[in-house]
Design goal:
- 2% of the residues lie in helices and 39% in strands.
- The protein is mostly beta strands and 248 residues long.
- The protein has 2 domains: 169 residues, no CATH class; 62 residues, Trypsin Inhibitor V, Chain A, CATH 3.30.10.
- The strands form 4 sheets. A 5-stranded antiparallel beta sheet has the order 1-8-4-3-11. Strands 2, 5, 6, 9 and 10 form a 5-stranded mixed beta sheet that branches.
- The longest helix has 4 residues.
- The radius of gyration is 20 Å and the shape is elongated.
């Protein structure tokens, strides 16, 4: 099946941040290419990966990147306009600096497993983004009648959801911890125990952080500072408390 079969490449909608900004309609990327980029805005960054003094957290205008987590995939069948299957995907991003969520097909031709593979991505922040609550986003992708797909698989930065029947619905539970309130708490690595006497609400467990994770201890160097908008960086103190952090 050629790229021209994807109606959404000519009419892709990107929903805005639910509950915080109005839904916005986004023009699609050209076939075979990434969505249009926005102007780059670079700023200084703090030691722990966060923004420097006076720099807004997660300046808007970075490159496209997968959303941090996919939470649901739904396919609706429509009989209007000759018939369409409409793929609707919801997910989470790490803050309001992410914009224009959209779905990118990566399947070429008729897949052997019958699955249409998609990447759920958005325009990432241009720099490190400070810790804060996750923001929900969604996007839709109409597919023409007569397609060869039996299901849909959608991939984010840290997970994937497979829907094995069309129409249908599948979901994944949201992560337990977004680290919005991690600062000042003890970091407990997998297999380790919290400090003696530490209250349950004063610890952050690595097992509850299902993301690409970078832990920087006081004695650690930083061999590379290439930005990854879906990587959670936590800076620890001598006693194992989280003193700084960012998505970078």
């Amino acid at each position: 099946m050629t790229q021209s079969k994807f109606v959404a490449l000519a009419s892709l909608f990107a929903a805005g941040l639910i509950g915080s900004v109005a839904h916005a309609q986004q023009q699609p990327p050209s076939a075979g290419g990434p969505p249009p980029g926005q102007g780059q805005q670079q700023g200084q960054q703090g030691y722990g990966g966060g923004p420097g003094p006076g720099q807004p957290s997660g300046t808007i205008g970075g490159p496209p990147a997968p959303v941090v987590f996919v939470t649901s995939v739904e396919v609706l069948r429509s009989d209007r306009n000759g018939g369409l299957d409409v793929v609707r995907v919801r997910g989470l991003v790490t803050g309001s600096s992410w914009t224009t969520p959209h779905l990118i097909p990566i399947t070429q031709g008729e897949p052997r497993d019958g699955m249409l593979d998609l990447i759920f991505q958005a325009q990432a922040p241009a720099g490190a983004a400070g810790l804060g609550p996750f923001m929900p986003v969604e996007a839709i992708l109409p597919v023409e009648t007569g397609h060869p797909y039996k299901g849909v698989r959608v991939r984010g930065g840290n997970n994937a959801i497979s829907l094995k029947g069309i129409p249908g619905y599948a979901e994944a539970p949201a992560p337990k911890e977004d680290c919005a309130k991690c600062i000042g708490k003890f970091f407990v690595a997998k297999g380790a125990n919290p400090p003696a006497g530490a209250a349950a609400d004063s610890v952050v467990r690595e097992a509850d952080l299902p993301y690409t994770l970078r832990i920087i201890k006081p004695t650690d160097g930083i061999p590379s500072y290439a930005l990854d908008p879906n990587r959670l960086t936590l800076l620890l103190s001598e006693d194992g408390r989280i003193v700084d952090g960012a998505w970078d």
